Amino acid sequence: MFRIRKSEVDKVNQDQILEILKETNVLQTGHFSLTSGKHSAEYMQCAQVLQYPDQASKLCNEFAEFIKENNISVDLVVGPATGGIILAFETARLLGTKTMFAERENGKMVFRRGFFVEPGQKVFIVEDVITTGGSVKEVIEIVQEQGGIVVGVGVLVNRSPEPVDYGVPLKSLLKIQIETYNPETCPLCAKGVEMKKPGSRGLKK
Asked: Where do the annotations place orotate binding (predicted)?
C-alpha cells in the first residue's frame, strides 16, 4: 500500500510544467527530421529534464499527488526502459514503494535482472512520453501475466492524437500535439531552415 511522503515540492500547474520543459530543453524548436521520415518544427526530448533532479522531482510529485487525491493504493511503480526508469524511481521514492523497470529483449518487453511482480501487487506505471501508447500497453500485459494489478498510468508528455484508454486512470502532465510535414511539402525546407536530426551532434544537448 502506498505511503505518501510529506510533500517536498509544491504542486505545479500546466504553465509551470511547460516552462520546466522549455527551460530544461525538452521542448526543442527548429527543423527536425524524425524517424518516421517526416519533418517538424518541434521535438520533445524528455530525457533532457532528467539531468535536473529537482525539476524531475517536481514532475514526479504530480504523479504522487494524483495517486493521493484519487485514493489509489500502490505497492510498486514500474517504468519501461529507458524513458520511464528515472521517473518511476523518483515517483516510488515519493510514495515510499518499490520500483523496477521493464526492458526489451528480442523486441519484446520483459522483466529481467531478477525483477518480478508478486500476485496481487498494485502497480502504477510511469512513462516519459506516449504517442501510440504501445510500450505502456506491453508493460501492462506483462504485469498482468505475473498476477499484478495495474491501478494507474502516469506520463510526462502525451503526444497521442487520439485518446488513449488503458482501462485505468491516466495522468498526463502535459498534452501536446506537434505538427509534422511530408518532406516534399515541408515549409521549413522551402525556407532553407537548417535540418537537425534528434540525437545527432547537430542537436543541442
From this structure: 131, 159
